[in-house]
């Protein structure tokens, strides 16, 4: 992103916040109501107005509910079902992450590093100025619960593990730096996604990722068969050292982005689109045939690209070891990317965290929210497909040995 684009984004954000005094309250209410609708759809097994035999019940309008938050009182329309069975813990969860956000903003103001806009927002959020004791009270309500989440035992096996990092700007000792937010998501044998860990590191390195993975192992992580990540050298090295028994899948989305480094800035042909199509094939044999034709077709025009693809594409095809039904979900880190986008949407209000502690507090609170929603929602994957796939692979091996 260029400096002009960044400046434009900042101006747009300031205009958006300044144009409507109730902007924050309206935004939060919309997010909460959208989440309530999603929870109701999951509970009934059908979207609003959807006709399906799997439907578990029917909607019955809405009731009004007031939710007191730091952005003011929200007047919400809460969906209800005919049998009166639907209930939500969203209000409890929302208040937890909302308090973490307020704590971070408040700490910025107390330390004297906030902008005029942040000062205005924090006073609107809490209705008064901030003291160190007030901030301490806000944060103490969260830290114990979040620490328990971060240290909990991982008793169940997680055959699938997805790893990635994003960056947040943090002020430490008067210096602003980018710190890596390391995140691990596991899929258990029930096919449900779990946020396993969220940690901060000064940078992505072999040692920081190794410590992260060893921390997971110490908490009981086991049964990992397949790991998805980008190709950051430190991360890949740590995976191979700590989880040598697991197959590694290089995220194909990151791979395609990296491919842009090996072609001219403006590519006006189908070269990259054809490369993208490889990942829609059902069988690995089809990919190999397409790859051979693609290399022959584009070698003369883009020799750097074709040489690079030929040398590295195998790492992006590991997912063909899995049942075909899992390919879409396990060939990339998109599952985690969507979580990262949600984190970014919520943390951009702070922009520069006043400390590592406040940064980690807010992100973990949001991660707990997501984790609980995943566990109570529908299954992400049908793991029976993996069980049958492994049985079939064993049968083929036994038949080959017998022959």
TrEMBL record:
Domain of life the protein comes from: Bacteria
Keyword list, A-Z: DNA recombination, DNA-binding, Transposable element, Transposition
Cited InterPro entries: Transposase_mutator
Purpose: Required for the transposition of the insertion element.
Organism: Aquibaculum arenosum
Leader peptide range in chain numbering: none
Record protein name field: Mutator family transposase
PANTHER family with a match to the protein in the record: TRANSPOSASE FOR INSERTION SEQUENCE ELEMENT IS1081 (PTHR33217)
Family: Belongs to the transposase mutator family.
NCBIfam families to which the protein is assigned, alphabetical: transpos_IS256
